Amino acid sequence: SVPAAVAAGLSTGARHGLLMKGGAVMETAAKTSLVAFDKTGTLTEGRPQITDLLPLNGTEAELLATAAAVETGSSHPLAQAIVARAEARGIAVPQSTSATAIPGCGARAEIDGEIWNVGAPRLANETGVLSAADSATAHRLESAGKTVVAVFTPERLLGLMALRDEPRADAAEAVSALKQMGISSVMLTGDNPVTARAIADGLGIEARAGLLPEDKVTAVRDLARDAHVMMVGDGINDAPALATAHIGIAMGSGTHVALETADGALLRDRVTDVVEQIRLARATMANIR
Ligand code: ADP
Ligand code: MG
């Protein structure tokens, strides 16, 4: 049976939205030496906003309309931001068909018999529609911590847009508190290395970027060779990485989906609750030793 101290620790945590699935999880949490954070929706708000619209041919409205047509139906946060902005501006969005996701890269759909792509500039680079000047523009925006999205057919680039997903207000504080406890932090993201670096530098954290979901699993496995790894993510597309870490914690509103694959959850959408959870686990385990 679970010792009384552990039971008390688990229920103290639960009262504050710090859930752990039992005493074994608490014991593991207490040993955490490295926290791997997913970026989008965990260290950041997960609600990117369009900051720049750069049409190269045509108007801002045409750029938004085409991008929104491709992204309609996608649940990706970037897609939702683009569709929401088109709606807010009352732009008529053309019909699209055969919309598909390009995992870790973007989305694609057919509009009026033409194939349109909305995604990372590197995708546009592959088809050669991005000029050196366009690449330089993209790089400048990425250095400001923005994610750049290109809107293009295999023949031409319609324009670029940039979106910024703000770090959560307490993310830097959480990273620094963990450091004081002797715990290092790493940010894992599918975003490009330049954007990732800009965000990570602001938080004082190391970053591993350009990761597909399966790469996040490999990254966690790699980190777990030398450390006791707690992985914190939204739990929706991070479930395999959460399962790979010594302990997987789901954070935020999507948590009811995630709790099945996670060892615990943080219900209050605060990054500093990662610190609170490890403190609670350490204090509890110290009590029974
Ligand atoms: P993460 O969840 O870590 O941010 P994703 O794998 O969801 O990473 O996306 C990685 C990158 O692929 C994004 O930063 C973006 O550049 C691009 N991308 C993915 N999906 C879309 C989409 N629907 N629209 C535009 N860009 C996308
Ligand atoms: Mg994601």
What's the helix and strand layout?
Elements: H1 4-15, E1 18-20, H2 23-30, E2 34-38, H3 39-43, E3 49-55, H4 60-71, H5 77-88, E4 97-102, E5 106-111, E6 114-119, H6 121-126, H7 132-143, E7 147-152, E8 157-164, H8 171-180, E9 184-188, H9 193-203, E10 206-208, H10 213-223, E11 229-233, H11 239-244, E12 247-251, H12 255-258, E13 264-266, H13 272-288
Parallel strand pairs: 2-9, 2-11, 9-10, 11-12, 12-13
Antiparallel strand pairs: 1-13, 3-8, 4-5, 5-6, 6-7, 7-8
Magnesium ion binds next to loops.
Using the coordinates shown, work out and report the CATH topology of the largest domain: Rossmann fold
Our count of helices gives 13
Terminal CA distance: 16 Å
Shape: elongated
**SSE ordering:** HEHEHEHHEEEHHEEHEHEHEHEHEH
The small molecules bound here are: adenosine-5'-diphosphate, magnesium ion
| Count of separate structural domains | 2
Organism: Thioclava atlantica
Family: Belongs to the cation transport ATPase (P-type) (TC 3.A.3) family. Type IB subfamily.
Protein name: P-type Zn(2+) transporter
Subcellular location: Cell membrane
Structural account:
The chain has 13 helices and 13 strands. Strands 1-13-12-11-2-9-10 form a seven-stranded mixed beta sheet, with helices on both faces. The chain has helices at residues 4-15, 23-30, 39-43, 60-71, 77-88, 121-126, 132-143, 171-180, 193-203, 213-223, 239-244, 255-258, 272-288, and strands at 18-20, 34-38, 49-55, 97-102, 106-111, 114-119, 147-152, 157-164, 184-188, 206-208, 229-233, 247-251, 264-266. The chain is 44% helix and 24% strand. The two termini are 16 Å apart. By secondary structure, it is α/β, with parallel strands linked by helices. Helix 2 packs across helix 13 and helix 4 (60-71) packs across helix 5. Bound molecules: adenosine-5'-diphosphate (ADP) and magnesium ion (MG). The site of magnesium ion has 3 residues, from loops. One of its GO terms (cellular component) is plasma membrane. Keywords: ATP-binding, Cell membrane, Membrane, Metal-binding, Nucleotide-binding, Phosphoprotein, Translocase, Transmembrane, Transmembrane helix. Belongs to the cation transport ATPase (P-type) (TC 3.A.3) family. Type IB subfamily.
